Amino acid sequence: MKTSQKFYLFCFFMPLVKLAPPNQQHSTLFHETFQQGYEDALFQEDYEDNPQDGLKNKEDNTFVVFNENKVQLQRDDEKLAEGTTNYTKLATCLLCVCLIRSIYCEEMDIESIPVLPKETGYLYARFNKIKKVKVSDFAEIPTLRRIDLTGNAIQEIEDAAFAKLILLEELSLADNRIVKLPVLPPKLTTLNLNNNKIKSRGIKANAFKKLTKLSYLYLAQNALESVPPNLPESLRILHLQFNNITSITDTTFCKGNNQTRYVRQRMDEIRMEGNPVILGKYPNAYICLKTLPVGQYF
Hints:
Blueprint: H1 2-19, H2 24-46, H3 51-59, H4 68-81, H5 85-95, E1 97-99, E2 102-104, E3 122-124, E4 132-133, E5 146-148, E6 156-157, E7 170-172, E8 190-192, E9 216-218, E10 237-239, E11 269-271
Parallel strand pairs: 2-3, 3-5, 4-6, 5-7, 7-8, 8-9, 9-10, 10-11
Antiparallel strand pairs: 1-2
Helix pairs in contact: 1-2
């Protein structure tokens, strides 16, 4: 009721103020005085039962009657003062689709990895124009579990770009122009490198040795001259079809030395069709396998 009376008084005196001689300083002073009194009245009326809550809200700038735009701009300026990183991440979510911890940046014609919000778990940036993956792209995102960069134009990956992603389980780099494999994270379970330009010298001798959780390795349609060495015991699926592999040895898949009791228990599938190698020439190379590799035997 008190508020209504003050509002009517305000409406009654407004024409009188307009008819008065122009005095900008006096008019501004009157407006500010009346505005402050009106806000105080509303404040007192709304929080008369619990004035402490009202005081706290007023101090926190959560009680706003006039000048909402001015207050909002002030808060925006404060956020801007924190740095441009937050705005860049906001721009990422305007350009891409952000769903909880998943970022979808597919078919956006982007040329680099976007700045990701913290705690991102899944990144899908397929079918873009990304040419390079840098260490700084994921340096502050250790929570990543899946990265899919299929169908880009990636030619270079800095050696430590994925090394510190200790939670990363799935990495897809298929359909790119990669020639060299970077250091891989330890918990990787799936690695897809199909349809690249990787040669055997582009894979370090111990690239897969310490990946004790790796189950699925796809290296089809590359330029490999030999099967990568030191394949982990955890491997279940190995795709090497349509490379330039010309030969294998007794230790390529097994331990050699006629260890008939050794069996690769988890290996379910090896595909080697489309390679020059004649698999029938190396009968001792499969003695530890539960099934023969798919490929040319004659």
